[in-house]
Amino acid sequence: MSRSLNIGVLALQGAFQKHVEMLNRIGVKSEVIRYGEQLRTIDGLIIPGGESTTMTKIIFEMRFLPDLEAFDKPIFGTCAGAILLSETCDDPNIQTFKRAPVKMLRNAYGRQVDSFTESVNLSFNDKPFSAIFIRAPKITECSSKVEILGRFNGEIVLVRYRQYLLSTFHPELKNDPRIHEYFIEMVKK
Fold first, then answer.
1. Strand (E) or helix (H) holding 159
2. CB contact set of 18 (below 8 Å; sequence gap of 6+)
3. Residues catalogued as catalytic
4. Which of 25, 27, 65, 163 could form a disulfide with 74 if both were Cys (CB 3.0 to 4.6 A apart)?
5. Per-residue pLDDT tens for 126-172?
6. Average per-residue pLDDT in the chain?
7. Residues near 173 by Cβ (< 8 Å), separated by ≥ 6?
8. d(CA 97, CA 44)
9. Which CATH superfamily is domain 7-188 in?
10. pTM (predicted TM-score)
């Protein structure tokens, strides 16, 4: 992996530290992003899971949105981060960034106690990915222009649209770097 890349991990709220650890593990420089102006120095951005309504509120209160809207490099959103990248969400309190033409349903599989691990079949790798779903959203609809990269039981759980990667699960919580490596390859192109 290239050490010259600098990947930002949005650290306003949510489980950002595990993404930093995964990037370090695969030899990629990371930067914790707390201010909009930091986006100018990174090659790609990860928006972690967390609580999507809280993340939306913080982004607006800190006037972070203009910097995020101007950011035109690859972005990887996991769980709540994927919701924020989507076209629409079922919750009217969440203002999405409308980066990928997908519709999301928040907490589609239940509450925190209903979290689960499931094997996800990846289109770019023969080995299934053991994915952790925590209050996970569901992709209920996606444009035919969206590339489906991962499924379990017929459900779409990992997609790519242009320079955006959306995961409804938490790949950073497993000791398996394949999805982060896929994102790094997106950033390199």
1. strand 155-161
2. 48, 170, 172, 173
3. 79, 170, 172
4. 163
5. 999 999 999 999 999 999 999 999 999 999 999 999 999 999 999 99
6. 93
7. 15, 18, 132
8. 16
9. Class I glutamine amidotransferase (GATase) domain (3.40.50.880)
10. 0.94
